[in-house]
Amino acid sequence: MLLGYQTNTWGGVIGHPAGVTSVKDLYYLAGGSTEQAAHDISEAGYKGIELFDGNLMQYEDKLQEFQDLLFENDLKLIGVYTGGNFIYKDILEDEFSKIEKVAKLASQLGAEHLVIGGGAVRSGGIRESDYEALARGLDQAASIAQKYNLIPSYHPHLGTICETPEQLDKIMGLTSINLCPDTAHIEAGGGDPVEVIRQYKDRIKYVHFKDYSSGSFLPLGAGHQNFSEMVSLLRDMNYNGWITIELDSYEDPKAGALISKRYLAETLNLM
Length: 271
Fold this sequence. Notes:
By secondary structure, the chain is an alpha/beta fold. The chain has helices at 34-43, 53-57, 63-72, 92-108, 128-147, 165-174, 183-188, 193-199, 227-236, 253-266; strands spanning 2-6, 48-52, 76-84, 113-118, 151-154, 178-179, 207-209, 211-213, 216-218, 242-245.
C-alpha cells in the first residue's frame, strides 16, 4: 500500500471567495501554502499528496512550477478533491464545467484519482428526489473523470445528504461510482468504517484515513478507530493502492503528519 497526505491541513478549509458569486468558480480551497505543505509532507515520510481543486487550479498557468514542486520533494500527485451541490438543475452545467476543468488539469499533472464530494442539504430539508439527482450527478462526474483517465470515487461527508449509513447505502444503490471511505466522517455520521469497507470492498479504489474521538478529527492513533482491522480487510482485498491521511485542521500540521506517520509505521507496519 502507498501512503499519502492531504494538503488541506495547512490552512484548513476556507472555500474559494469567487464561489460566492460564481458557481463555476466554487472550488474547495485550503488557506495555507501548498509549497510548505508539500515540503512538510515529504519530510514526514509520505510519498504522495492530494489537493483540493481550488489549490490545484492555482497552478493552471504554472504547470512546470507544480511539476518541479513534486520532483523536488519526491512526491506523486495522488488525486484531487472536487464536488458540487448536484441537486439544483439550473447550476449543473457550471458545476460540471468546473469539474471537467479540474479533471483535465489533474490528468495533465499525473494524478490517479478524482475524489468527488457533495449532495447539498436544502434549507427546507432533504427531498427524496435529491438522492436520485445526486446519483445522476455522481455518474456524470465519474464519466468526466474517466474521460481523463482518472479513477472517480465518491467521498461521503458530514453536512451533505450522505452522512448516515442508511443515506450511504441509498446513494451507493443508485450510482455505480466507486467509494472513497473517509473513516472519521463515516463514524461521525453514525457508521462503522470497518463494516463500510467490508460491505463495499468491491467498489473501493482509494481510501482516506483520519482518526476520531468525542466529536473531533485527530491524527492516527490519537482517537479510537480500528485501523488495524481496516488494514487487515484491505490486505484481504489485495488492495495495493493509496491510503491518504486527511486531517481537516491541526494546530501544527507537520506535527500531526508525524504523529500519524509514527502510528502507520509502529502500529500498522505500513512505513
